[in-house]
Structure formats: structure tokens, C-alpha cells
Amino acid sequence: MEEPIREASQQVSEEFKTLVNAQDLNSLRHLQHLILGRLQDSNAVLSHYNDFAENCFADVSMELSRNTRLLKSMKADLDYIFLKLRSIKSKIMATYPDAFPDDSTSDAFDRRPDLELPQ
């Protein structure tokens, strides 16, 4: 039983060998090696870039968090300054009612945009 199967498989393999040209196979093998080499080079370049980007991100993220803390501190300081200015202005208005004769100046006093509202 095995002998006829072996003969049939050999015959089929011989038929396949006649269908495919050996030079074409060598050409395909050569192209596959070229593509493999290029993919390995690309992989090495991408790995190097990923390492570089990771280091840059670590540097930038520390700087960004430091600048964010600084901006939050500056905003708190400016809010405190404007609060004090409003309080001083209200005290001046109470003491000297005609110090700001035009009511339009009170609207123009604080023209800061509210940064916490969505645009």
C-alpha cells in the first residue's frame, strides 16, 4: 500500500519540478534575501529611532511638567494680584466716589479672558 503512494508522490513531485524553472526559483530566493536584508535594516533603524524618541520624550516631559507647574503658579499669582487690585479699587471708590467718574472704566478695568471657559 505504501509503495504505490510513494511512487505517486514521486511522480507528482517530478511534475512540479517541470512546472517551475530553476532559474526563476533562484531569482525568487535572491529577491527574498534582498527583501529580508532591507527589512532587517529598516527594523534596526526603527529600533534606534524608538530609543531616541523615548529619550527625547523623557527630557521633554520633565520640562513640560516643570513649565506647567510654573504657569499654574503664575496664574495663581496673577489671580491674587487682580483680586487685590479690585479690592483697592473698591476701597478708592468708597473713599473717593468721583475718582472714577466714568462707569465705562470699570468695565475696561479687567479685560482678561477667562481661560477656563471653553472657546
TrEMBL record:
It holds the Pfam family KxDL. Transmembrane segments: none annotated. Residues 108-119 have a biased composition (Basic and acidic residues). Residues 97-119 are annotated as: Disordered. Residues 16-100 form the KxDL domain. Belongs to the KXD1 family. This is KxDL domain-containing protein. It comes from Eruca vesicaria subsp. sativa (Garden rocket). The lineage of its organism: Eukaryota, Viridiplantae, Streptophyta, Embryophyta, Tracheophyta.
